[in-house]
Amino acid sequence: MTFTVAADLPQTAVACPCPRCRQMDILLTFVPDACFTLLSGTNDIGQHQVHRHPNRHFSCSLCGTAVFIVDARPDGSVLRGINLRCVPIADPGAMSVRWVDGAHH
């Protein structure tokens, strides 16, 4: 699966302490939906939804890596949560981390 994101790399990544996100070691940045373009791998995408939360999570159906989230906001806008560990030029070790409680919102 390959994609492009028309945005600068963030200084801060978002992390969730829920068991699933911790297990998958996900670090996110959120961008407007229009900034994201999926280039290849549409047949290799798995999708799931966590409980009744409106966000849709997409992962590689071949290796299981969590790649991105489609985050439908209450105001009708849509954001993409990009797993920075899937971005070759990102250096997560150089970013600060902001923890959010994704398990309870």
Q: Any idea how many domains?
A: 1
Question: For the report, how would you describe the main beta sheet?
Answer: 5 strands, antiparallel
Let me know the average pLDDT: 89
**Unreliable sequence segments:** none
Radius of gyration: 13 Å
How far is the first residue's CA from the last residue's CA? 29 Å
Count of DSSP E strands? 9
In helices, the fraction of residues equals: under 10%
Q: Please report the first level of CATH classification, the CATH class.
A: Mainly Beta
User: Which H/E pattern describes the elements?
Assistant: EEHEEEEEEE
Backbone shape: globular
Number of helices: 1
State which percent range the strand residues make up: 35-45%
CATH architecture assignment name: Beta Complex
Helical/strand content category: mainly beta
CATH topology name, in short, is Metal Binding Protein, Guanine Nucleotide Exchange Factor, Chain A
Q: How are strands sequenced across the largest beta sheet?
A: 3-8-7-6-5
GO molecular function: carbon-sulfur lyase activity; metal ion binding
Keywords: Metal-binding, Zinc
Domain CENP-V/GFA: 1-105
Family: Belongs to the Gfa family.
